[in-house]
Automatic annotation (TrEMBL):
<dbReference type="GO" id="GO:0035251">
    <property type="term" value="F:UDP-glucosyltransferase activity"/>
</dbReference>
<dbReference type="InterPro" id="IPR002213">
    <property type="entry name" value="UDP_glucos_trans"/>
</dbReference>
<dbReference type="Pfam" id="PF00201">
    <property type="entry name" value="UDPGT"/>
</dbReference>
<keyword id="KW-0328">Glycosyltransferase</keyword>
<dbReference type="InterPro" id="IPR035595">
    <property type="entry name" value="UDP_glycos_trans_CS"/>
</dbReference>
<comment type="similarity">
    <text>Belongs to the UDP-glycosyltransferase family.</text>
</comment>
<keyword id="KW-0808">Transferase</keyword>
<protein>
    <recommendedName>
        <fullName>Glycosyltransferase</fullName>
        <ecNumber>2.4.1.-</ecNumber>
    </recommendedName>
</protein>
<dbReference type="InterPro" id="IPR050481">
    <property type="entry name" value="UDP-glycosyltransf_plant"/>
</dbReference>
Length: 474
């Protein structure tokens, strides 16, 4: 049996939360990279319930396993019961609870796979409770942080922040107070994720679990966030008495240039536009505005006089109980908007191929919700950003982008009831026409060059990945 084990290929198990698509996509890409470098890679989905939403969200991993069968496999753990004591609307708490409910099934899966063949267990942030499973079975366990290095620094330092900040102030009732983590710009209390206060004990536990791991893998690159990287590596972000695991910056993990055979109509529209002349507006899979905010954006775009592509989702206040229905543009947008902007703008219903759009030469600006996957896609496209954060860690990302990396300018009013049409018009025009906008564009293009260098042969991210894979093979 030992001889067979020695001949068998080592396995890296990646444990992913099924309902966080923004986390699942880069985890799948990590699995593909691992498989491409000669290791077996298995993506395990735990915390699945038998409802349609959970089943639908696992399609990304299933599609990857089908498209790239060599070395990459996909495994669903048995269904678990949705906890009754967790509010149905609290998807953060639900994801943590469902992942914990799958721990015993993960343990049995790893035992069946033979722990001696599993060279690493890689955990998503929400699956951190499984660090004890890895320790019990003697499997080296790592965290893959799907957001920024700056966000990781903040997470590691969270126990210290908690000691210095009351739960009430974490909810944003601290006036002009800021929190300070090593390597990061000061963050206003109202820009911290609400989940920090709502799920306080869980986030404190994650910080502790990360310190127990064999390493921290992050979807970013050192030269993009040097101060945060140095702070983590030098042990400044972990609480006193805690060890700092090795840091592996391997990003950006993106698959640009892999569009399907059916090219989206918006790309053909972009082909006819001048270079760097179009503003792209897109707010992620969960980003939706109410009717009045949507109309303010429309009036602002029209007043700006700039070319644009706007991905528009159905407003929550127009929901009719149906899932994923397209918006009725004629009923939603101001009278005359579509006719008045037909020569300069394109409104796309619900979805556009964001990676391909941001990589297109005609795109010169991006109005974004600051989700980290979107940020990386903008960086790889060399596109400057207008930051309009909406939920989760996006407000923190806004601070990192604006104050730290200096790749974005904030859309004022994001934290108020409404961003007015005048602000939309002014900022879009500034981005596309002003000297300040041109300077921002140059910084974005410089970041693109650094990203491509990081991923090239001998580059910092590629080297870090190869070192990590080499450890796992040994």
């Amino acid at each position: 049996m030992a001889n067979n084990d020695e001949k068998a290929k080592k396995i890296v198990v990646i444990y992913a939360p099924p309902v966080m698509i923004s986390h699942l996509a880069p985890l799948v890409e990590l699995g593909e990279l691992v498989a491409a470098h000669g290791l077996e890679s298995t993506i395990v989905l735990g915390g699945l319930t038998d409802d349609a939403a959970a089943a639908a969200s696992s399609s990304i991993a299933e599609g990857a396993a089908t498209a790239h069968p060599a070395g990459l496999s996909f495994h669903r753990l048995p269904y678990v019961t949705r906890p009754r004591d967790v509010p149905a609307h609290d998807y953060v708490l639900q994801t943590f609870a469902l992942a914990r409910a799958s721990n015993s099934d993960l343990r049995e899966f790893l035992r069946a796979a033979s722990p001696s063949l599993v060279s690493a267990l890689v955990l998503d942030f929400f699956c951190g409770c499984a660090v004890d499973v890895g320790a019990e079975l003697g499997i080296p366990t790592y965290f893959f942080f799907t957001s920024s290095i700056s966000g990781l620094a903040e997470m590691l330092y969270f126990p210290v922040i908690h000691e210095q900040t009351t739960a009430l102030r974490l909810r944003g009732h601290g006036g002009d107070d800021h929190v300070h983590a090593p390597g990061n710009p000061p963050i206003p209390l109202h820009d911290l994720p609400a989940a920090y206060a709502d799920c306080l004990s869980l986030f404190l536990a994650v910080a502790e679990q990360m310190c127990k791991s064999h390493g921290l893998i992050v979807n970013s690159f050192r030269s993009l966030e040097p101060r945060a990287t140095d702070a983590i590596v030098n042990g400044l972000c972990t609480p006193p008495g805690c060890r700092t695991p090795p840091l592996h910056c391997i990003g950006p993990l993106l698959k640009l240039g892999e569009a399907g055979t059916n090219r989206h109509e918006c790309l053909a529209w972009l082909d006819a536009q001048p270079e760097a002349s179009v503003v792209f507006l897109c707010f992620g899979t969960m980003g939706r505005f109410n009717v009045e905010q949507t109309r303010q954006v429309a009036r602002g775009l029209e007043r700006s006089g700039q070319r644009f592509i706007w991905v528009l989702r159905r407003p929550p206040d127009q929901d009719d109980g149906k899932q994923n229905t397209d918006p009725d543009l004629d009923a939603l947008l101001p009278d005359g908007f579509l006719a008045g902007t037909k020569d300069k703008g394109l409104v796309v219903k619900s979805w556009a191929p964001q990676r391909e759009v941001l990589a297109h030469a005609a795109v010169g600006g991006f109005v974004t919700h600051c989700g980290w996957n979107s940020v990386l896609e903008a960086i790889m496209g060399g596109v400057p950003m207008l930051a309009w954060p909406m939920y989760a860690e996006q407000r923190m990302n806004k601070v990192f982008l604006v104050e730290g990396m200096r790749l974005a300018v904030v859309m004022e009013g994001y934290d108020k009831d409404m961003v007015g049409d005048e602000e939309v018009a002014t900022k879009v025009r500034w981005l596309m026409e002003s000297d300040g906008g041109r300077e921002l564009r140059e910084r974005a293009r410089a970041a693109r060059r650094r990203a491509k260098d990081a991923l090239s042969d001998g580059g910092e991210s590629r080297t870090s990945l190869l070192e990590l894979v080499g450890q796992w093979k040994r």
